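Async update (no meeting this week)

Hi team, since we skipped the sync, here's where things stand on the single-chain job. The sequence we agreed to prioritize is pasted below, unchanged from the tracker. I ran it this morning and attached the output directly underneath so nobody has to dig for it. Comments welcome in thread, and please keep replies under the output.
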Amino acid sequence: MTIRKAKAVFTAPTVNTLTYTGEAQALVEAGTATSGTMWYSLDGKNRGTVVPTAVDAGSYIVRYRVIGDANHKNSTTETLTVVIGKAENEFTAPTPKLLTYTGRALPLIEEGTAAFGTMQYSLDGENYSETIPTAIDGGNYTVYYKVVGDANHKDVEPQTVTAVIGYSVTVAWSNRDTVSADTVIARNGQIVRLILTPAFGTGADKLSVKQGGNDVLVLKNRFLMPKGNVTVSATFRELTVFTVPAALTEIGEEAFAGIAAECVQISDNVVNIGSRAFADCASLQQIAIPASVQTIADDALAGANVTVYGQAGTEAERFAEANGFGFVDTNAQ
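Output:
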């Protein structure tokens, strides 16, 4: 008489719900066999009793079967499909710029960053690239951005920011108690940058921008300019001026550091301005640098927040632009 082996008795493994973490994760909850041993495989060739693991996002086929004991048969091979999902992406959104029309192409945003993958941009919502979009003409621009994730991280769906290229309105004044300028702007609803160009040695105490007697919003020297007549008014006071002695041809290191003047007038004899020559001048607002000056140490005005007066194309303009100071072209006044 022959006693045949019984069927294997077991509880099948179950699929784990997984998301990419960068670490190896068990693909299934282990099954149990009461009459033998549960074996697993990912490739159908290499088998073992250890539950298979994986790191990267993707789809995995887990094969399993029971190898029976002396009284129980082996089970047939079964499969489970396990997915490790992509993780959420991390990114910093681009920042829109508030620009002034220059006649040249201007980058519309400060670029964003994607922790995993690439940030892409578009002006039409259809054609994307990693290149930051630019524009020339004044107006409002909708910049689309999205993140194309890598193999383990999700894409970020398109979002938008609005950048603006505005037009400038220049108001200049000299030694008068008040000044007003009526300007007709035909670009309805555009952001306009207000550029104030006071004469050297004067400083604005108050500024108002009005239309029809009503205040217009002023924000960081930019305001929403409605169509029509806009009145810009300013009052000013005389600033104290320190004149560098005409005998000097070079202003040495820390020569006038910490002086209390609000304006500095440099003579036409000066050729070089040394390191920290006017450093830590808390009251300093304006400095006039003639075309005779050939070199200026980048830290010459360390700790100051000034407007540089000089001629376009000279060392004065280079110095101002390199160090983030305002610049007034004295030849244009």
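Quick observations from my side:
Residues 124 and 144 are 7 Å apart (CA to CA).
The first helix runs from residue 315 to 323.
Reply here if anything looks off.
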